[in-house]
Every structure is written in C-alpha cells, then in structure tokens.
Predict the structure.
Amino acid sequence: MKILKFGGKSLTHGNGFEKTIEIILDKVNNNKKIAVVVSAIANATDVLEEILEKAVKKEAYLEQFSAFKKYQQANFKVDLTEEFQLLEKTFEGVTLLGDYSKKIKDNVLAQGEVISAKVVTQALKAKGVNAHFSDARLLIKTDENFGNAQPLDSLSKKNVINHFKQNNGTTVNVITGFIGSNNNNDTTTLGRNGSNYTASLIANYLDAEELQNYTHVDGIYTANPDLVSDAKKIDFLSFNEANELANFGATILHAKTIVPLLEKNIPLRVLNTFNHENKGTLITSTADKEGIKSLSVLENVALVNLEGRGLLGKTGVDARIFKVMGDHNISVSIISQGSSERGIGIVVAADKASKAIIELEKEFENDFYSKDVNKISAIDDVSVISIIGQDLSTFHKPYSALIKNKIVPILFNNTVTGKNVSLVVNKSQLNKALNVIHGEIFGVSKKINIAVFGHGLVGGTLINQILNSASTIEKRKDIKLNIFAIANSKKIILNKNGITQDWKNEIENNGIPYTIQGVIAYANEHHLENLIAIDNTASSKFVENYISLAEHSFDLVSSNKVANTLSYDFYKKIRKALADNQKNYLYETNVGAGLPLIDTIKLLHHSGENITKIKGVFSGSLSFLFNTFSASDISFSEALKQAIANGYTEPDPREDLCGNDVARKVLILARELDLQNEFEEINIQNLIPENLRQGDKNDFLSRLSELDVIFAKIKTDQKPNHVLRYVGELSGDLQKEKGNLEVKLISVPLDTALGQLKGSDSFFEIYTESYGDRPIVIQGAGAGSAVTARGVFGDILRLSEKG
C-alpha cells in the first residue's frame, strides 16, 4: 500500500482540487492500493484562527464565516451541517466569554481537516470510487498537550490496523490529517503542518510501501525558490538529511515526519500536484552521495543572550539554562557559547523570547547580585540559515563569501556529526545571505552584480564587451556577469535582472536622476550580492563616492586616474576604508591601458624586491604623436592632427600635451611603492607654449601650425639617428618616503628598445636591485577605448574569481 498525502494548496478549489482527484483516480484505475491523508482545504486553518481571534475580541466575523462556509462547501453535495453548527456555536460562546482555551482552539482548527476529508470523499464517490471518510480522531490517540499533542503509539497503531481490516480491499480511506484525540475523546492537534506527521504515522502502522507527499512544488530544493531564484531541485535525500532540513525550518516537511518512516525504512517521495509528470524528490535511508544538500531557514525566532564575566570556570550553567527552558516548554533550536562560558546564546521561537528572559532572570537572580551575570537580552530580528551537509573543513568558503558581502553572522554552530552548520543572521540580510551562500556552494554560476558609471568611449565599449561575452564566461568559468545599473553624470537605468543590448536607447529615453545612495539602496532592496562599481568617468567629484560604495559592500574597478592622484591623505583614506570593509580596488588601466604593469610592480614590491627606477613612455597618445613625427617627414601639427583623427588624444589635446596625464601615471606607480609624493612635486615639461595654454579649445586647434617651428628645431637639434620620446621617470632612493618624479621630452638612439617604439605603444622599463642593469620591459598597446575597456574587463574578472 502507498499513502498519498495532499497539502492545502493541492486542495484549493479549482485547478488544485481537480488535479488531486485526477491523481487519486489514476491510482485507483491502475489498481494501486492506496490510502489518502488530507490537510484542510486551501488556507482554512488560517481563516478559522482569524475568525476565532475576531470572536474573542468581539469583532464582526459573520461575513468572513459565511464566505468560509461557502468556499468549503463549494458545489459538492456533502452534508457539513454538523461541522458548521459546531463552529457557529463555538464562535458565539467565545464572543460571550471573551476567552478560549487551547482545547477549544484545537476543536475549531480540526474542523478544517474534517471538512476537507468529507469533501474529498464525496468528490471521489461522485467519480465512482469506493471512498470512505476516516476521522483520525478515532484512530490517532494522543496525550493532552493541546496544540502540539504527542501520539500514543501502541494504541494508535492498534486502532489504525483494525480500521483498515474493516475498511480496506477496494476501499480508499480518506483520512483527516493534523488531528487526533486524547483518552477523554477530546480533539487534539499534532502541531502546525502536522498532516505530514499523520501520514507518516499511518505509513508506519501499516508498513506502507511508500509515502507520497503532494505539494505545490516539484520537490525539495537546494533553497527556498521564493528566496533564491537559482535554487535547484534535489532528486535524492537521505532520512538524516531530510530530518535536518525539517528540524531547521524546511516548511515542506514537518520536523516529526521522518522518524516514523525511518523506523520502518519507508521511502518518502515529495511530488508536485500540479506537475504530475515530475518524479519529485525521493527520501530513503541511504544518501545518494556525500556533500551539501540544501539551505534551510528558520524564521520567527529570537536570539537570547546571557552574558557574564563571572561565569568563567563555573560549571552547570548550561544545565540551569536548559532546565528553565524545559520547565516552561520553550524549545531551543541552537545554543552557542565561547570556551570561557562568558557568553551563551540560545535561539528560541520569537513569541517565547520574553518568557525566556523573564524566567532566566529569575533563575540567575543571585548571579546578578554577585555580578557573575551582567545582562540577559534578546535580539528579535534574526533568522537562522542551516547548511545541510556542510563539513567544517570547507565552511570557510561560504563564510568568506558572506564577509565579502558585508554579512557578519551573529553566531554559528555545527552539529555533533560536523556535517551541518547553522548561522544566525540579521533578518534584513536573510535574502542576500541565502543567495551568497547558495551561489558559493552549489554548482550554479556565481553571480556578479555590476554598476557601470560612465558610458563614453571606454565605458560604452566595456558594457558591450560584457554583454557580448557574458554567456561564454558563464559556461567557461561559472561566473554570471549581471550589469544591473548604467549611469552617466545625470541619469541611470536600473534592472536587477540585467541591462539589455538596447541600453543606449534605454538610458536616453527612460533614464532617471539618481544619487549614489539611491543605487546602494536599490542593491540592498533587491538583495544583490557580489557587487562591483565601475568608474569609467574622468570625474574628480565621482571619486568622493568610493568610500561610501566600499562601506556598502561594493568592490571597485576604475579607469579613472583621479582617485589615485589626489592628495596622499585622500589616497590613504580610501585604502583605510577598503581595508576596514575588506573590499578590493583594482585600476590596472590607470597606467598602460591593458598592459599588466601595476600588477607586476605590486608583485615585485610586495615580494620584497627593491625597485630602483621606473622609466618609460606612459602615454599612448604621445607615443603615437612622437613616433609619427620622428619617423616621417611631416610637420608636428600634421602628426598631431593624425593622433586626434585616430581618437588617441583627449577632445582637447592640450590635456595630453601639458604632461599632466603622464605625471598622474608616474605618481600612481610611485604610490604603489608606498612613496608619499604629491602631484605638485612632479617636475613636468609642458609641451604647449605659454601663449597657447589658455583660451578656447577650438582656438587652439586653429593655431596648431604655431607649434611646427618649435618642434622642428627640437627635431633638427638631435644627434644623428635619434628620435623623440616623451617619457616619465621615477628615480632616487625609493626606499625613502619620497622619490624623484619627472616628465619630459628626450631624444634617444633609434637602435634602442625605446627608440624602436611603434604606433601608440606604451613602453616601460622596471629596474630592480636583483636584475641590475637589465630592466624588466613591458611593452604593448597603450591607447584606445577597446584596449582600455578590455583591461577594465580583466579587473572585473579578477575580482569575480576571488574567493
């Protein structure tokens, strides 16, 4: 025999109820031997409890009660007079008395299951099935703990076996879940979600072949799909794993459901009423394989803390706490304490927290006087996440991922087996914490949520590179890059599910004004994890947002050089904020566009290598300009016009010619070596004559020919076989606080590495103590939006792959 159990959503009138009847009919028509356990129809239990509360408060409830009766009866010709009259009289009595007992409440709530079983029985009879209404109050005998009664096994088993001897064969018994009765025949309930428990007891007593639990989902998932969109269905679980899931909040199972099945090794299959073809999740005595199976959540809990320096070395504190909890029927789901016993935390149901504090204060009253106990308090807004199957040896991975996302667990503990870990987190962080842990430990893509600020040449190219490469990167690296925000200086577009290829039109037509705090609030509201902010602006004002972004869980990537070249105090302030919040800031494209220069210098410096000098062509724009001017018989203005036409220079080329851009890059490298130089200390050779430094850009562009005589003379005055290069140089004793920084135009032999530079390439020589006169040379494309964007993209991927 198989036991079929149907939940309230499966019995919702309309599609759900019809599907349930179809499933039962299919079993009957295929000569399957079955019994059916039902929950109350739809949300009947909740509605009955609401009406009861209205009655005790003398509030109007007749309209709601009338709607309840109409819905429960539906169009079935089933006599529910007895149930409706009992409810009506009870509600009237409660209104008069202004009070009710747990016994009365059990009797009220039980009617939901009784009505459901009678309606299902009648519906099956109308289809020609020999169905029999079976009232579990005549079968399951319990103690007198109303609201959460415990079955009396031997008597209940005898009743069930006798009942099935009399009503079996071709009969389909439709049994009320959730309810029983004590030895005085008073109605009791087995606790919320107790219908699953009823079904597992019936399966145990009858040595059933299988228990099939029909719900509204395809089975048990790696996490609640309502909270984690990437959750995957689990095909197989062991009883032990399912029991841990149930104990730690998996609502699809009742915590007591598993034990009766485990005793008889009866498989439990969780199925979807609305997707009958799906095979669901099968739970058996043996695990499919070792490893993490699911994330389970306990909500509506509170953390009660007992703190006291005087508890150090005292024995028996735990015993006293548990005695108090036991004497007052307060269940403790988690306990955590330090080895010193100076602080003990226990997790209890939220509605029991006040009672727990009152009773603990009574128990430890003398300890307060002796100052052994300082404080007993509660934190209400918490939730518990349990990682079922988590081994402590690999727990550092999800824990590190939480810390990276600025989620600091209040406490955690593990079971005796060391295979399950529970974390207490602030309730406001529950959704984000679940998604962070799930993305880290299951075989799904790690989601990286990106906000791009600035969508000019570099920013726009980067956005398109990410969108075009996202699917390939997800397949190759299991990293899902999700651009949730694109902004310019005035407007932004936001989409938690990702910006589309049509982003340019979107921001033009649908962009809205924004603040950085608004972007942060959006990320928090939608529980976005693994955040990266990309600064592709050239704004000195935008860099002021870096600290706030880091404080709110964003890693930073920047092609904007400003943040690294403002005052040394600001430079250190950003680094401190990054360190305090354990965030990263990558800016490889600040010097050398896409070349691995900064990473190389960091590696050398951090490994203890003494760098003695750095010299090179830092600007791809000026590299192209002087390579072209030196190698061709053209005027300086013609070479400059070519650089402008190729998009190598800034819109106003004076920003390149003044030398400030190269100077900033030299300063960035100096600071990578922990030097404290300021921008004002750099010796910069400005290539623009004083009379052309001021005024309108267009006026300057119209007067470019005035540069020709100056640079023709410089070119002519060179030694034979020499060429011009605009270089930056960092030298001096680089072990001191400051180095010598210089930016200048020099002439070098054509047959040297620097002299043979072509196109817009950048060129760097890194001299170190170990390498002596033979520098490390890094050379390659040093300009262009595609190259720079690709460098920023590389930084994004480096951050994405971090633990």
